[in-house]
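User: quick one, sequence for these tokens?
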């Protein structure tokens, strides 16, 4: 596979190598793919959560926001008290 980079992309890669952050262009490309894969996984996870939320909304399975925040605050307080 042959990939052509824009001049600013090539400069970015060269700057990263020169700074010592990466040893070579392959390391940078590998890191970029890891980040892209993680991003894609996160997008799929969010789409699934949106789908579940939409279904719950359709089925009137809603939770009052204030009740959720109250429960979260109680958990935070409990954890803080356990740490003392």
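Assistant:
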């Amino acid at each position: 596979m042959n990939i052509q980079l824009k001049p600013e992309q090539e400069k970015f890669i060269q700057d990263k190598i020169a700074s010592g952050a990466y040893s070579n262009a392959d390391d940078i490309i590998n890191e970029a793919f890891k980040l892209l894969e993680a991003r894609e996984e996160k997008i799929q996870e969010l789409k699934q959560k949106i789908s579940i939320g939409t279904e719950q909304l359709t089925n009137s399975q809603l939770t009052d926001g204030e009740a959720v925040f109250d429960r979260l605050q109680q958990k935070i307080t409990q954890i803080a008290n356990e740490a003392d």
